[in-house]
Write a structure and sequence with these properties.
Chain lengths: 84, 170
């Protein structure tokens, strides 16, 4: 009886933590996914990237990444992508 | 083998008997000197080890009160109910925090996987729309349900594709 209650309680806590973690992870993951596509495209278009550029992309927020993603399509140089 | 066991049992029984004998003497002396004893005191004496009993026996001779025999600083370490409740509550708190954290770690991993795919899809969709105008729902679904590697590949093709067909060929 007690053991069952504790089991249920444990499962509920794990699940509660998991839900919280899901949200956090998802936010992080979205940003990472966008950064990954942008980096891949930048490399394809402009060759190997400076570590600073990689860092800049990896640490930007998702909306900024969408904007850079739009610019990649028409940019003639890295400067075109990152101008602002 | 049998002899050995018998010897051991005999020793144990004698030790127990000695402790009981000593306890009885101490109890008798205490009662003579201080009158009726509290059940806790009787229990304490009955469960004490022989060395402790010898020491108490010595003290009884000169003691003016029970406290002289059992000084407060020698009280057995016991927890009050309140202390026990606090301890239990603290342990439960810690346990809960650990479980929450464990769940959060797990959720974070899962969420991150999902999020990566979603982020890639979002970016590729935005680029496709920008390049080729509004997308058919079927195309949108296709992008949203692609796995992360496939999305990276689509992303590469978007750069040079002249049409949606170029992106989704194969």
């Amino acid at each position: 009886m007690l053991a069952e209650s504790i089991d249920r309680w444990n499962r509920e806590l794990l699940e509660k933590g998991r839900q919280e973690g899901l949200q956090e992870g998802r936010q992080e993951g979205r940003q990472e996914g966008e950064a990954q596509v942008v980096l891949r495209q930048l490399r394809l278009k402009f060759g190997p990237l400076e570590p600073e550029t990689v860092y800049r992309v990896r640490s930007s927020d998702p909306d900024r990444l969408l904007e850079w993603g739009e610019r990649v399509l028409t940019a003639q140089s890295l400067q075109d992508v990152f101008r602002d | 083998m049998l002899t050995e066991n018998i010897n051991r049992w005999t020793r144990e029984i004698r030790e127990e008997g000695r402790q009981e004998g000593e306890a009885q003497v101490v109890l008798r002396l205490l009662q003579l000197k201080f009158g009726r004893l509290e059940p806790e005191t009787v229990y304490r004496v009955r469960s004490a080890d022989p060395d402790r009993l010898l020491k108490w026996g010595e003290r009884v001779l000169t003691a003016q009160s029970l406290q002289d025999v059992f000084p407060p600083h020698e009280e057995p370490a016991t927890l009050t109910l309140e202390e026990m409740e606090t301890m239990l509550a603290e342990n439960i708190d810690r346990w809960n925090r650990e479980l929450l954290e464990k769940g959060r770690q797990k959720g974070r991993q899962e969420g991150r996987q999902q999020g990566r795919q979603e982020g890639e899809a979002r970016l590729v969709l935005r680029q496709l729309q920008l390049k080729f105008g509004p997308l058919e729902p079927a195309i949108e679904d296709r992008v949203r349900s692609a796995d992360p590697d496939r999305l990276l590949e689509l992303g590469e093709r978007v750069l040079t594709a002249q049409s949606l067909q170029d992106v989704f060929r194969d």
